[in-house]
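Worked example

This section walks through a single chain of length 287. The input is the sequence exactly as stored; nothing has been trimmed or padded.
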Amino acid sequence: MDSESQLANGLKGIKGFVFDKDGTLTDFYNTWMPLMRRASLLVASGDEQACLHLLETSGYISETGKCIPGSAIVAAPTDELANGWWNALLPEFAHLHARHNTLEEVTAIVEDVFLTGIGSTTQTVCDLPRFLGCLKNLGLKLGVATNDSEGSAFTTFDQFGATPYLDFVSGYDSGHGSKPGMILAFCAQTGLKPCEVAMVGDSVQDLEAGRKVGCGLRVGVLTGVALYEDLAPNAHMVIESIVKMQELLVPLIIDSTDPTMDKPTVPPFSVEYDSSFLSKRKGLEAQ
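Given that input, the structure is written out below as tokens.
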């Protein structure tokens, strides 16, 4: 059975979606690497060598400009990333470490860069209001679980007009713990069972979170850092992007609607995503 048939079958009984944000709804590299460099340079007090050291110890590969899937720079919450950078200054850059009084000070620096800079760097995978709006028109509950802060997530969704379509948004600082807790909080807020929820993400951590709480469907997407072989063992299926999921979902739900009920109104929909994502995946696989 091909991936499209698997996805169509898996979507039966799904009433809600929890999306990861970075690498799933947004382009990770163009959105986050400028901010990562800016934040790490501040933590390094302007020292370029120390800045590169911080980036590399957290998963950045300077030779290729890529990141290691699952590494801190890709998957860690902001406070954990800041903690790793502060500790990484020792012992080689102890004089720079001493310029920061506490870990809380370093975390605040990183959070401020992310929160104030995200609006200028974010690139979405597709037209989010059209994409999310179409899913909402089908009666689905939609949520986001991100290791970014809740404030930064809302900054992004407000900027692109996507917030009104979301029933739930959780960041690492929202009080729900890590992503399994976020998914369960989404279920509690929407009244859905985990088996009625699909977890969609670009990382192994996203898919493992879905597995731990019993999500009915786990979908990996190739618009982030991870490759197909990273995601496949933990996913029911791996697809190019969220756009492919939507293309298959609309006819499935319309066809399965009770014939005695009015069919959901679905506006004409055509979303294009940047084909460079797929080219990037193929390029990485070839390395």
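What to look for: Residues 206 and 238 are 13 Å apart (CA to CA).
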